[in-house]
């Protein structure tokens, strides 16, 4: 299940891509399939081990084109172990709502992104997320949980303040919002509740089969109740005089 729309955020073979806070690796895997040179970074050692295994399995199965590379590594989003201008593309999906210093994370992403490079940021959408918080304290009052809810204009403003130029946005995963409302209503750790199990089964079927009816339904509902908000932006090139001054 991809939150970033790669038709709006294309990845070219050879692109240097950082998937920051990669989690289980869903966006990193897609970039690898598209021929990129991928670095998947997360602070969770267990997830990095799993992503490493999947990268190896994808290579063995021939899922990535020749020239594509993939590395998974532990790291701190506030102190990225890369030189300036290291990447053509940075993706950070469903991560910033967990981090107290979100401005610091944005600054690090901008630092490692080359001028002219592109960034995709996704966070839980304000409306659906407010419902989850209202239904369950356990949903967000946990270690490593969500510590803030972004309004769309607030996130776009922070992206601009970091020195990036937003060029597009959209909402995603409308069909997933009711699932999380059910989880919050019946208990976030209660996967045995019948409504939760039934809706999860529906989502798995939808992800695997991609039927036209649910694709059209989600496309129609995304602007109203999409679970995630996605922003795309570029890092502007320095003005010529600034470039010359920096080189001196």
From TrEMBL:
Q: Which GO terms describe its biological process?
A: methylation
**Which domain of life, per UniProt?**
Bacteria
Please provide the record's keywords in A-Z order: Methyltransferase, Transferase
Identify the CDD domains for this entry: AdoMet_MTases
Recorded hits in Pfam families, A to Z, give: Methyltransf_11 (PF08241)
Give this protein's Gene Ontology molecular function annotations: S-adenosylmethionine-dependent methyltransferase activity
Question: Residues in domain Methyltransferase type?
Answer: 18-120
Q: Does the keyword Lipoprotein apply?
A: no
Q: Does the keyword Mitochondrion apply?
A: no
* SUPFAM superfamilies noted in UniProt: S-adenosyl-L-methionine-dependent methyltransferases
Q: What is this protein called?
A: SAM-dependent methyltransferase
Higher taxonomy: Bacteria, Bacillati, Actinomycetota, Actinomycetes, Kitasatosporales
């Amino acid at each position: 299940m991809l939150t970033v729309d790669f038709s709006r955020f294309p990845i070219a073979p050879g692109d240097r891509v950082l998937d920051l806070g990669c989690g289980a690796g869903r966006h990193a895997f897609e970039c690898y399939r598209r021929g990129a040179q991928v670095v998947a970074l997360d602070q969770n050692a267990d997830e990095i081990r799993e992503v490493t295994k999947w990268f190896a399995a994808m290579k063995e199965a021939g899922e990535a084109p020749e020239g594509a590379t993939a590395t998974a590594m532990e790291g701190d989003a506030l102190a990225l172990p890369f030189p300036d201008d290291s990447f053509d593309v940075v993706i950070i999906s469903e991560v910033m709502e967990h981090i107290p210093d979100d401005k610091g994370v944005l600054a690090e992403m901008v630092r490692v992104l080359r001028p002219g490079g592109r960034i995709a940021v996704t966070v839980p959408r304000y409306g659906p997320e407010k419902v989850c918080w209202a239904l369950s304290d356990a949903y967000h009052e946990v270690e490593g949980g969500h510590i803030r809810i972004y309004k769309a204009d607030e996130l776009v403003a922070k992206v601009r303040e970091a020195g990036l130029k937003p060029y597009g946005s959209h909402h995603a995963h409308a069909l997933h919002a009711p699932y999380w409302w059910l989880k919050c209503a019946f208990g976030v750790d209660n996967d045995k509740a019948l409504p939760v199990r039934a809706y999860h089964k529906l989502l798995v079927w939808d992800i695997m089969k991609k039927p036209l009816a649910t694709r059209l339904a989600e496309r129609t509902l995304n602007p109203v109740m999409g679970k995630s908000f996605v922003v795309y932006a570029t890092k502007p090139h320095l003005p010529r005089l600034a470039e010359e001054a920096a080189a001196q």
